[in-house]
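Extended Data, panel c. Modelled sequence:
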Amino acid sequence: MTSEVTIRALIDSSADATVLPRAIIDQLVALPVDEWSVSSYDGVTEQKYIYAVNLAVLDLEPQPLKVITVKGTRHALVGRDIIH
């Protein structure tokens, strides 16, 4: 089980939630804690599992956060839930 992973991230000031690549969640062996109905930038709404992680950005202290996952990307999207 991996307890710490470092990845590149893009800041998305229009995103309500932070998104992590599915591969990262698999590495962390995280289990879903909830399910949300989410809408993407193109208006498509779907059900997504939510995962609880401790997330640190740069040198800031890690904070508990619920994140959404997406397949097929290697970068995270940092949403307003972190940048507020």
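The domain at 9-83 is CATH 2.40.70.10 (Cathepsin D, subunit A; domain 1). This feature is highlighted in the accompanying rendering.
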